Amino acid sequence: MSSVDENHLQKTEQAKEQTRAGDGNTHSVVEARNKIRLARINTVCERENPHLIRRENPMLRAIIDPNRKITYCRVNKVASTYTLKTLTDTFNCSKTCFRETRKDIQQLPYSEFRDVIAGTYKFMFVREPYGRLFSTYSNKFYFTKEHWAPVGPNIITRYRKNPSFESKTYGHNVTFHEMIRFVVEEFEAGRKNIDEHLRPMYMHCDPCDYSYDFIGNLETMESDWAYLRDIWHTRRKIAKLSDTVGKNLRDDITGWVHVKRTIERFKKSTISQYKLYLRAWTYYQITGLVCKTIALPFTEDSNISIYKFQEALLKAVEQSKPFADECKRQKKEALHQAYASVPLELLERLKNALEIDCYLFGYETRPDWVFIRENTTSDFNYFKGLA
Fold first, then answer.
1. How far is 307 from 264, CA to CA, in rounded Å?
2. Model confidence, pTM
3. Residue 357, CA atoms < 13 Å, CB-side half-sphere
């Protein structure tokens, strides 16, 4: 697709969506919005070079209920954990239950697999692609989590001349710049098996090969879920869902259990325990749960325990609640700070890696907040835990 065609389509569809959606979240508004999203996908699939976005015999990351009524195509870092939990509660089917259902269906011949999928209500959720990569970095690479390997060590070994033993072994201190370089080079090399959190959204769900009934956006998730709740009930796919579905999507501190596991795992290593706690604390500042004015109440010399950390974190979250709007702006500050660390030449190459997702799902291929760096920096260092 030429840049002229893409820009015209993007502006036209965004204008249509804004005009129809207005400020409301009614059933008819969401339905009209969904038609625009689906029409856009059809247009892009027809115009794009097919080999770029179609795969031979694509098998979805499909999560299908045991009664084969609904198919959810899971895209990591688009509230997929929340959506999966909603489905497990709705169908009284555990993750293991869904896994077994998926296994049974994916063992079918490809033509039969497609027939099963075709008979279900198919939906997926997407989000702004540059923001999704930042979310992946902050949660999967920066946050104090025990699952840095194998991607972390792979990235560090590839790009650092003399990495430390700990960095090569654990991959615990990958920078945002390094992660973006890895994504770009994997794309340019034509590798399709990149980590699912870094993989383009269209590769998870193949929207040019499967005809979806609904495309939700993280940015409109509350109204999208309200629509799904009502339409599934009307079509007798499910019993009535709770009115709270799609709400309360704000980040919480349940991830602190990862901090506990990580501290235990690296207790005998030379990795600074203080820095691990600092990374967890600043992560919650990135997500906006803790105001950046509230510092980690420990020093390098402190005798920190996971329980002292949890107590301090809960206190900081409560102290931050009166300043919720101010704290929410921290996520955007951190995002700008991360992208400001990436050379513009590499960002241009990243644009090429993300443009199919942008074309298909209606996002800007070259957003100003990524490529124009005026007034986007903050004096606060959100990633000081790496230092």
1. 13
2. 0.90
3. 25
